[in-house]
């Protein structure tokens, strides 16, 4: 949720839907016990990667595929012929 965005929430007691701003959601999270705040943070990190720059995501894919070398190797060794 960015600035000015709202979440539609459901009140289980009345059965009504209501609108909650990001600021209100944040305040609700602040009121949770530490263990529950940790659950919320874990959920966000695992399910929303919009805060991670695309360049970082691409670099992680390169690392997982073995397409990176350490800086000393890059600076001081001759690259393999396929990379020249």
Question: What gyration radius follows from the Cα positions, in whole Å?
Answer: 22 Å
Note the overall shape: elongated
Mean pLDDT: 82
Tally of DSSP helical segments: 4
What fraction strand? 5-15%
- Helical residue percent? 40-55%
Main beta sheet: 2 strands, antiparallel
- Tell me the domain tally: 1
The strand count comes to 2
Return the string of H and E elements: EEHHHH
SSE map:
Layout: E1 6-10, E2 17-21, H1 22-30, H2 34-47, H3 54-64, H4 71-76
Antiparallel strand pairs: 1-2
Describe the structure.
The protein is of the alpha+beta class and 84 residues long. The chain has one domain (6-83). It is built from 4 helices and 2 strands, in the order E-E-H-H-H-H. It has a two-stranded antiparallel sheet with strand order 1-2. A hairpin with a 6-residue loop joins strand 1 (6-10) and strand 2 (17-21). The radius of gyration is 22 Å and the shape is elongated. The mean pLDDT is 82.
Which structural traits does this protein have?
84 residues; alpha+beta; two-stranded antiparallel ribbon; 4 helices
Summarize the structure.
This protein is α+β, with helices and mostly antiparallel strands. 48% of the residues lie in helices and 12% in strands.
């Amino acid at each position: 949720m960015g600035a000015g965005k709202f979440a539609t929430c459901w009140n289980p007691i009345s059965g009504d839907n209501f609108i909650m701003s990001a600021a209100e959601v944040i305040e609700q999270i602040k009121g949770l016990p530490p263990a529950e705040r940790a659950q919320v943070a874990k959920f966000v990190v695992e399910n929303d990667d919009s805060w991670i720059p695309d360049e970082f995501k691409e670099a992680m894919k390169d690392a997982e595929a073995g397409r990176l070398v350490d800086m000393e190797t890059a600076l001081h060794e001759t690259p393999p012929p396929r990379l020249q």
